[in-house]
Write a structure and sequence with these properties.
Layout (H helix, E strand, L loop, with lengths): L1 H9 L9 H22 L5 H18 L26 H16 L11 E12 L5 E11 L6 E5 L2 E5 L14 H6 L4 H9 L15 H15 L8 H11 L3 E8 L5 E7 L9 E4 L6 E9 L6 E14 L7
Helix pairs in contact: 1-3, 2-3, 2-4, 4-8, 6-7, 6-8, 7-8
Length: 323
């Protein structure tokens, strides 16, 4: 134990004090490294050696401000095919918990929209036709009725589309009514189970009880929730932490968003080619950057890669009004 404390004392010998963000990232890496050391080595390590391994991760973060995110598929890159090399199994959890920490430092209590208002958002979509490489950029705007009692107007690749008011007893996901959003729990596991229950009373399950389709559904529903431009304070970071609790989330390093910024993707392995659709985060700060998706033409002959990010949002009183 004394050796461990001595190691901890040596961390900041000549280093500047940690910022709040650095502390959050370091804490997540320390806990995750200690929790997963045995998984990486395959041979149990003593607590002392585990802490030294975790310390190395945290110190690297403190000195460089970043950490290398390595894939988790065990494909043995750089070695024999299929060979398992030391890989950071907790990379997705690190990114998502880091995103939650970043968000908590940035967010402030937002102005609650009224049910008679509209949520305005503008996003940029960069679409690439996979065969030809032709790129087209769209600027889409949306006016979503908060109370879903009025028609909503949205654009899809430059085309206007109308959404009729929801009937009595019907709603949308994610909820737009502030009163409904405020009811969503901020505890990560409870949030996952609450969104899967669709407002009904949870049946006592835990996340470990979910089958593969339910895990993917949780990932998808949380991703849709994050598309909402305004959420009650604390709910967005809770959604990131909830994603970290969903089995099957995985990092995809070396990606870019629609603005050309370097990023790391967070995908779910539960359906098809998981590398086609994912959320994109900054690989250093873990700020959320946008989405990647794919679509197929009506003829089925062309496939397009879509990269998107929100550039503006606000609360307005009428359709076509801008903040």
């Amino acid at each position: 134990m004394n050796d461990e404390l001595e190691l901890l004392r040596e961390w900041d010998a000549d280093a500047a004090p940690f910022t709040g963000t650095a502390k959050s990232r370091a804490r997540h890496r320390l806990l995750n490294a200690m929790a997963h050391t045995d998984e990486r080595t395959g041979t149990g390590l003593s607590r002392r050696h585990a802490l030294r391994f975790a310390a190395a991760v945290v110190v690297a973060t403190a000195v460089t401000g970043t950490a290398v995110l390595i894939g988790t598929d065990g494909s043995g890159e750089g070695g024999a095919p299929g060979a398992r090399t030391p890989r950071l199994e907790y990379a997705a959890v690190t990114v998502l918990n880091g995103a939650a920490a970043w968000e908590r430092e940035q967010e402030r209590e937002p102005v609650a929209p009224r049910d008679d208002q509209f949520l305005y958002s503008k996003r940029i979509i960069k679409e690439t036709e996979q065969k030809t490489g032709k790129v087209q950029t769209y600027t889409d705007e949306m006016w979503d009725s908060v109370g879903v009692s009025k028609p909503s107007l949205s654009m899809e690749l430059g085309r206007e589309m109308w959404e009729e008011p929801a009937g009595k007893g019907n709603g949308v996901w994610p909820p737009r009514k502030w009163s409904e959003l405020k009811k969503l729990p901020h505890d990560p596991e409870r949030l996952v189970l609450a969104i899967l229950s669709s407002g009904s009373r949870p049946d006592g399950r835990s996340i470990s009880d979910l089958d593969e389709p339910q895990r993917y559904e949780a990932y998808w529903l949380l991703g849709e929730l994050l598309k909402n431009p305004v959420l009650p304070q604390g709910l967005r970071p809770a959604a990131y932490e909830a994603l970290a609790h969903v089995p099957g989330v995985k990092t995809i390093p070396g990606v870019k968003d629609s603005a050309g910024r370097a990023g790391v993707g967070i995908a779910h392995t539960g359906r098809g080619s998981y590398k086609s659709k994912y959320l994109i985060f900054d690989p250093v700060s873990y700020e959320f950057l946008g989405f990647r998706d794919e679509r197929t033409s009506a003829s089925g002959k062309e496939t397009y890669v879509q990269l998107s990010h929100v550039v503006e949002w606000g609360i307005v009183d009428r359709l076509r009004q801008r903040p």
